[in-house]
Amino acid sequence: MTSQRSIDDLRAEIDQINRELLTLMSKRGEVVALIGHAKTQEGRPNHYDPAREEQQLRELEALNPGPFPASTIKTIFKEIFKASLALEESNDKKQLLVSRKVKREDTVLDIDGVRIGGNEPPIIIAGPCSIESEEQMEQTAAFLQGKGVKILRGGAYKPRTSPYGFQGMGVDGLILGSSVAREHGQLFITEVMDTRDVEVVAEYADILQIGARNMHNFALLREVGRARRPVLLKRGLSATIEEWLYAAEYILSEGNNEVILCERGIRTYEKWTRNTLDLSAVALAKQETHLPVIVDVTHAAGRRDLLIPLAKAALAVGADGIHIEVHPSPATALSDNEQQLDFAGYEQFHAALSSMMRVATPA
Ligand SMILES: O=C(O)C(=O)C[C@]1(C(=O)O)C=C[C@@H](O)C=C1
Fold it and tell me: Where is the Chorismate mutase domain (predicted)?
């Protein structure tokens, strides 16, 4: 009579094998994490190593005693490699300088007394799309000062879709913007588009802006990372949240911790708005990073009639401020004349938002 083992008995053995496999898997995971750490230390950003995977598969195939066919062993080990790679990469992410896992508390910027982030009241960054003339800047700054706006924006270098569009006033614009802002007790923020201009822009601007189209310009990100000025980093038109945060990491990795993230809407299939404001990106960026996050409502939808509800929504999900374009005469503006608010429009915006902004109107 053959002594057949019962299913229960066999299952008990499987349970024991499972436990051993799990122990081995955990042990493998720990070794993989060490490899990942070593790769990061060596500055190897890419953890994937297909040649090493191939070598392991060949050896396993040669050693395979069965009963599983080689193809099955290959499939199982490919899954193990995939999980190992994910482990290496997630450990890497935990070490990102932008991450809350590295710095738990909110970063609060203090730029000449203007505080941004943490529990500070939300800030407003406002001003025209482009700096066009002294009169235009003077009128705007004076009006916005009266509304308690502490940060004046204005583009001196304009990233225009067409090379024949108005390209900005360049250095003359920088001089104008910074002097007008100073006269009105405001900080001046302006976009820098080229690594060659970082030095001159940093000389005049209190905050450097990296526009959406340059979010992937890694040389520029590194350069502003070396500049001793806070940086406002807009999210790229089609950038994932992860790509956006990695772009910020480029700046922090060069030693500049003063970064403000700015969500400005992303490209989707939607036609009724120019971009789609991604509020989950705001909430996620606040959750995953310690950096202040603001929302550019002007570009978010490309429509004036949505500015107030979008700004309210942005503040409701925890944005640390709003970026909005204001021009004395949007109809005659040299750029973005569809979207900028005139002073009457800004009055309405201010009235609708003031309770949420906690911005006092100076007497
Ligand atoms: O050996 C490495 O370089 C590892 O990162 C470990 C490992 C593995 O799991 O064996 C993981 C991912 C790589 O693509 C190659 C191999």
Answer: 1-92
CA of residue 219 relative to chain centroid, distance: 17
Q: Where in the chain is the domain with CATH 3.20.20.70?
A: 109-357
- Which of 212, 169, 189 minimizes the C-alpha distance to 127? 189
Mutate to test the pocket of ligand 1, among 47, 54, 56 (most ligand atoms within 8 A of CB): 47
CATH of domain 7-94: 1.20.59.10
Q: Is 274 helix (H, G, I), strand (E, B) or coil?
A: coil
Residue ID of nearest Cα to ligand 1 atom 3: 49
Q: Where in the chain is the domain with CATH 1.20.59.10?
A: 7-94
Instruction: Indicate whether this complex's ipTM tops 0.90.
Output: yes
The CATH code belonging to domain 109-357 is: 3.20.20.70
Residue 31 Cα to ligand 1 midpoint, Å, equals 10
Output the CA–CA distances (angstroms, integers) from residue 138 to 14, 224, 334, 344, 345, in the order listed: 79, 28, 17, 17, 18
Q: Hey, how many other C-beta atoms are within 10 angstroms of the C-beta on 195?
A: 14
* pLDDT tens, N- to C-terminus, the chain (363 residues): 557 999 999 999 999 999 999 999 999 999 999 999 899 888 787 899 999 999 999 999 999 999 999 999 999 999 999 999 999 988 877 779 999 989 999 999 999 999 999 999 999 999 999 999 999 999 999 999 999 999 999 999 987 778 888 888 999 999 999 999 999 999 999 999 999 999 999 999 999 999 999 999 999 999 999 999 999 999 999 999 999 999 999 999 999 999 999 999 999 999 999 999 999 999 999 999 999 999 999 999 899 999 999 999 999 999 999 999 999 999 888 877 778 999 999 999 999 998 887 644 454
**What gap in Å lies between CA 181 and CA 175, rounded to an integer?**
10
Strands (E), 235-278: 259-263
Report the nearest atom of ligand 1 relative to the CA of 56.
10
